[in-house]
Amino acid sequence: MRLFSACLFFITWTLYLCLGGCRPFQLQSRVHQYAIGDKITIKVKPTTLGVRIGIGTPKYKEYECTVIEGRDGVVCRLYTQSQWAVAKYNKPVESDRNALDQAIPFGEEVAALKDVGLYIKTLTAFDGKKWMVMKDVKVGPPRMYHPMKLAVEANTQEECNSVVDAVMERSVEMTEFWIQEKDLYQDDLKSNNCFVTPNLDRLTLIDHGRSRRVTELTQDMKVDIQISSLRGFSALGEKCNEKPKGGQKREFPRLIKPKV
Questions:
Q1: pLDDT tens across 164-181, in order?
Q2: How many whole angstroms separate alpha carbon 78 and alpha carbon 107?
Q3: Domain coordinates of the chain in residue numbers?
Q4: How many other CB atoms are there within 10 angstroms of residue 196's CB atom?
Q5: In this structure, which topology does domain 147-241 adopt according to CATH?
Q6: CB 65 within 8 A of CB 87
Q7: Residues with Cβ < 8 Å from 72, sequence gap 6 or more?
Q8: First and final CA of the chain: distance in angstroms?
Q9: What is the rounded distance in angstroms from the CA atom of residue 5 to the CA atom of residue 11?
Q10: Where are the beta strands (DSSP E) in the chain?
Q11: Is 196 helix (H, G, I), strand (E, B) or coil?
Q12: What is the pLDDT of residues 193-211, one digit of tens each?
């Protein structure tokens, strides 16, 4: 009985160390769920992924941020700089994918500074051998909001519908843009995955690991993207139906696309 207890104790601690108890030095254990308002710290390695700087402990750049949207992806507002960050579930590095979820080593919360598109070219770039992190990071866009906020703030159905129509059109435009530029197709458009500036000149679609690589933008894809947009932003239209009838349509400036 004593031998059995000793073996059980050994097995239990072995599993604990293998499954998360044995963390790389200075790295915090992962937290899989966040709530809006939570304070979290993301750690980004300012060198080639997985390579130490000199001799000894890897060096990291830390950003403290507040969760402003808690779902399977977490969007944070950085305290230290006027930049945006996206912290997401860890996914294995894929050598052919310029994605938001490839920035943090050792399986920690994945973080990337958010530019004005779906993918962050300035933070994660693939050089043919390794993922590069914190390379040529630039200041992010102005503060962005869920389109539902703009729909709620609209005073009339006409104004609200013009916002919804513009968001849907621009989400389709941005999706097609990334297919044409990077052969990356996000086929799960939703209002919860979308962030816009108040005048809709910038639109960001957050990738929650649902993108796939394609070879070209086909006519069938265009139809599917339109349908996905109609379905994904239907909640905005329902909000517009609650508004008083009448009013005037809003006009918006052209969509600013990221430089790739």
A1: 999 999 999 988 987 887
A2: 21
A3: 27-132, 147-241
A4: 24
A5: Transferase(Phosphotransferase); domain 1 (1.10.510)
A6: yes
A7: 88, 89, 208
A8: 65
A9: 10
A10: 39-44, 61-70, 73-78, 84-88, 110-113, 125-126, 131-132, 184-186, 194-196, 203-205, 211-213
A11: strand
A12: 777 888 999 887 765 445 6
